[in-house]
UniProtKB/TrEMBL annotation:
Keywords: DNA-binding, Transcription, Transcription regulation. It comes from Pedobacter caeni. The lineage of its organism: Bacteria, Pseudomonadati, Bacteroidota, Sphingobacteriia, Sphingobacteriales. Gene3D superfamilies: Homeodomain-like (1.10.10.60). The keyword Transcription applies. The keyword Transcription applies. InterPro entries: AraC_XylS_family_regulators (IPR050204), ExsA-like_N (IPR054015), Homeodomain-like_sf (IPR009057), HTH_AraC (IPR018060). PANTHER family: HTH-TYPE TRANSCRIPTIONAL ACTIVATOR RHAS-RELATED, TRANSCRIPTIONAL ACTIVATOR FEAR. This is AraC-type DNA-binding protein. GO terms for molecular function: DNA-binding transcription factor activity; sequence-specific DNA binding. Residues 172-267 form the HTH araC/xylS-type domain. Pfam families: ExsA_N (PF22200), HTH_18 (PF12833).
C-alpha cells in the first residue's frame, strides 16, 4: 500500500506510510514543529543522524539539509504530523510581545523531547483536521501556529533564540560546508543560501575555492566517494547511489563509466 503526504492546511502537513520509505532530500526553509504519532523517523543531516521515536516531539530549525527514512511501527503504520512556524507569523508575534533576540542559538541539531501534557493535547487538537472532519479557516490556521509558539516557549524559554532569530545565514567557509554536504541532492540555489551567498557570489567563490563549477565538482566528488566505497568497502552501487546524491541508478552507472572508464563491476 502506498503512503501519502497531505497538506491539511497551508502550514500543517500529515505523512502516513505503511512500509519503509525513503524521503527526498529536503532544504528546510522554515522552522517546524513535528510529532511522531507512530513508527519512527531516521533523519540524516550534516551533524550526524537523529532517530525520532514514537510519541516524540521535534523542533527542526530552518535553513538545513535533511534526508529521512520512515519506518512503520509494529502495527504496520508510520504517521508524522508537522506544523510550519513561518517567518511572517513569528515576526508578528515578536513585535506584539516585544521580543528581541540579540544572539544566535548555538546549540546542537538534536532538538527533540518528550511531549508535556500541553504539547500532547495540542497535537490531539489537530486530529479533526487530519481526519478531514473539520476544515481550518486561514484565521484558525494562524491561531494554531500561535498556540504552538506559546507552548514551545512555555516548555523551554530558550527556544526564543531559535524562533525569533530573523537574521539571514551568514557567509561561512565554503569548502568546509560543501565537503560536509555534497551528498545532498538539492539545488545550487539551496547551497548558495545555506552558505550565506547570492547565486552570483556562490558561483564566483566556488570557482576560486575549487577551480571548477558547482555542478562538475559535485559530480566528481560524489563519484570519487562511490569509487572508494565500492572498491574498498565492497558496497553495492544500488545501496549507495541515493546516499551520494544521484537521482537514479542508470544515471549513476553512466556517470561512473564516463569518469573512470570502467564499470562498477570492473573495479
Amino acid at each position: 500500500m502506498e503512503g501519502k503526504r497531505e497538506i491539511i492546511f497551508d502550514r500543517l502537513v500529515y505523512s502516513c506510510v505503511f512500509e519503509k520509505h525513503r524521503g527526498h532530500e529536503e532544504f528546510i526553509p522554515e522552522h517546524f514543529l513535528g510529532f511522531q504519532l507512530s513508527g519512527e523517523t531516521h533523519a540524516f543531516h550534516a551533524d550526524g543522524n537523529t532517530v525520532i521515536p514514537e510519541n516524540t516531539i521535534v523542533l527542526v530549525r530552518k535553513n538545513q539539509l535533511i534526508r529521512t527514512i520512515k519506518y512503520p511501527s509494529k502495527t504496520g503504520k508510520y504517521q508524522f504530523v508537522s506544523i510550519t512556524l513561518d517567518k511572517e507569523t513569528l515576526q508578528q508575534y515578536a513585535i506584539e510581545n516585544k521580543i528581541a533576540v540579540k544572539k544566535r542559538y548555538d546549540g546542537k541539531q538534536k532538538l527533540f523531547f518528550e511531549p508535556d501534557d500541553f504539547l500532547q493535547n495540542y497535537f490531539i487538537s489537530l486530529t479533526p483536521y487530519l481526519n478531514k472532519k473539520k476544515e481550518a479557516t486561514p484565521r484558525l490556521a494562524d491561531l494554531k501556529i500561535r498556540e504552538a509558539i506559546e507552548l514551545l516557549l512555555q516548555s523551554n524559554p530558550d527556544f526564543k533564540h531559535i524562533l525569533f532569530d530573523f537574521s539571514e545565514p551568514y557567509k561561512i567557509d565554503l569548502e568546509e560546508f560543501m565537503n560536509h554536504n555534497y551528498m545532498f541532492n538539492v539545488s545550487t540555489a539551496s547551497f548558495a543560501k545555506l552558505t550565506g551567498r547570492s547565486m552570483s557570489s556562490f558561483k564566483r567563490d566556488f570557482s576560486k575555492t575549487f577551480g571548477t563549477t558547482p555542478k562538475q565538482w559535485l559530480r566528481d566528488k560524489r563519484l570519487d566517494e562511490a569509487f572508494y566505497r565500492i572498491k574498498h568497502k565492497k558496497q553495492k552501487p544500488a545501496d549507495i547511489y541515493l546516499d551520494l546524491g544521484f537521482e537514479n541508478l542508470s544515471h549513476f552507472y553512466f556517470s561512473f563509466k564516463q569518469k573512470f572508464g570502467l564499470t562498477t563491476s570492473e573495479i
